[in-house]
Specification:
single chain, alpha/beta, 3 domains, 6-stranded mixed beta sheet, 32% helix
């Protein structure tokens, strides 16, 4: 079965999907027997608004005891799942064809820095495991940006240089008759701990997999991260893996090292080689799904953050701006710059901008940051076009502007290489448009990029 995101279907056989339909994502993610992996929610505490959304919405129309029809609605999740003998692939609605979802694969490559020629297409348990390996470099790099994890470790000693609590029982066992030594314990901060050793075991395991060494050496940042872990955890003892897995059953709760918790979760899944399944053989469920709206935002981050835009993270409560004094009423614009009378950008994975809620949210951000430009960016199959609205009562000299920019997703590319070239042109157009409006307080009239100006 092939579906697309944010679409409506009429089904003849709905029974295989009933076990996942009409269930909030939080229930699925937080289930100890989580049947599917959902990025990023399976790896982080599912608290944001999407936690209440359903994986599928299934509506049954009954006539007496007979089901007259079944209707299914998909949301923002893209990927694949296997349910018993049924294989379900969910493409993005911008897929070139049912077999080639170049847009989804391009997002994965940009966000996770995949540099692979063949990504899994099939809904198989092996493909799920492959994706776990592909996720590892990004999770590792995100964690190491917070510094090398350290926590207290208890060490046992038996020497004459006492600098900790004496262990009476061990001292009597080892040092009677007295030989000049004392048995004692110390508790010290260390980079060599249960978490970094878990990561080290995962690195060594990935090296044994096909293409694993390439994943770990794909870019300079990943190579540096791997080197830091190896240096902190030498020597490596393969036989202690089971003990390390037991030690990491307790999740990380450190308030600073927030990025290590999803990395810890991923390492456990890889080392256990979980197939993400439960039930009898005939009822197996496995798969991996990606929140494509999150991927869209993170993809834009790869374009905008190198240009100086800040990218707050509402899931981690990082980088917020406050509407009230005393750090009250935190808000999280997707992107903004700190220039005087600068720009606020909101990533929207939707066909149309809500002229009430979305606009009200953007105006709040612009008012708080004294921004001159607010830009909605959403994907579209049509050529790139922007509509600019002059705002009343806001901005330097009342010249603030609200923009809606439709980002062109190529549809006629015969292969992924051609698609990449075409979407690079869309990226160039977007960045030029943003730069032009950052440097000029006035909106452009219609130009060769399809930009037009309007007024409220």
């Amino acid at each position: 079965m092939r579906l697309t995101d944010n679409s409506h279907y009429r089904l003849t056989d709905f029974r295989p999907l009933q076990c996942l339909a009409n269930r909030p994502l939080a229930d699925i993610v937080n289930d100890r027997d989580c049947p599917v992996l959902i990025y990023p929610h399976s790896f982080k505490e599912c608290k944001d608004s999407i936690a209440c959304q359903h994986l599928f919405d299934l509506r049954l129309n009954w006539q007496g005891t007979h089901c007259k029809s079944a209707e299914l609605d998909t949301g923002n999740l893209v990927g694949f799942i296997g349910i018993g003998n049924l294989s379900v692939t969910i493409n993005s609605r911008f897929a070139n064809s049912p077999e080639n979802d170049y847009f989804f694969h391009y997002l994965l490559r940009k966000v996770f820095n995949f540099n692979l020629f063949d990504l899994p297409h099939a809904s198989s348990e092996e493909s799920v495991f492959d994706f776990l390996l592909y996720l590892f470099p990004k999770f590792l790099n995100d964690a190491l940006r917070q510094g090398l994890y350290k926590e207290y470790r208890t060490h046992t000693h038996n020497d004459s240089n006492i600098r900790g609590a004496v262990d009476i029982n061990r001292h009597c066992r080892l040092n009677i008759p007295f030989n000049g030594r004392m048995a004692y314990r110390t508790r010290e901060f260390s980079h060599d701990n249960r978490v970094t050793r878990l990561i080290r075991h995962t690195i060594e395991y990935i090296r044994t997999q096909k293409g694993g060494s390439f994943l770990l050496e794909n870019d300079a940042e990943t190579r540096a991260s791997v080197s830091k872990i190896i240096t902190a955890t030498s020597p490596f003892v393969k036989t202690e893996r089971d003990k390390i897995l037991r030690d990491n059953i307790k999740p990380i709760t450190h308030p600073y090292y927030t990025a290590y918790r999803p990395l810890q979760n991923l390492c456990l899944r890889i080392l256990r080689h979980e197939k993400i399944k439960y039930g009898d053989d005939g009822d197996r469920i496995y798969g991996i799904l990606f929140d494509v709206s999150y991927l869209w935002e993170e993809y834009l981050a790869t374009l905008l953050t190198p240009k100086g835009f800040h990218h707050p993270d509402n899931r981690q409560n990082l980088g917020s701006v406050y509407l009230g004094k005393g750090k009250k009423y935190p808000r999280f614009p997707d992107f903004y710059d700190r220039d005087s009378h600068g720009t606020v950008i909101d990533a929207k994975y939707k066909r149309k901008i809500d002229t009430r809620n979305d606009v009200n949210q953007m105006l709040t951000y612009m008012y708080r940051l004294k921004a001159r430009n607010g830009i909605f960016i959403h994907p579209d199959t049509a050529p790139s076009e922007a509509v600019a609205h002059s705002l009343n009562g806001h901005g330097l000299d009342l010249n603030a502007t609200l923009h809606t920019y439709s980002f062109h997703i190529p549809q006629q590319a015969p292969d992924f290489k051609t698609f990449s070239i075409l979407i690079n042109e869309s990226e160039t157009d977007l960045l030029q448009y943003i730069k032009r409006h950052q440097s000029s307080p006035h909106t452009d009239k219609m130009n060769n990029h399809g930009i037009k100006s309007e007024t409220f």
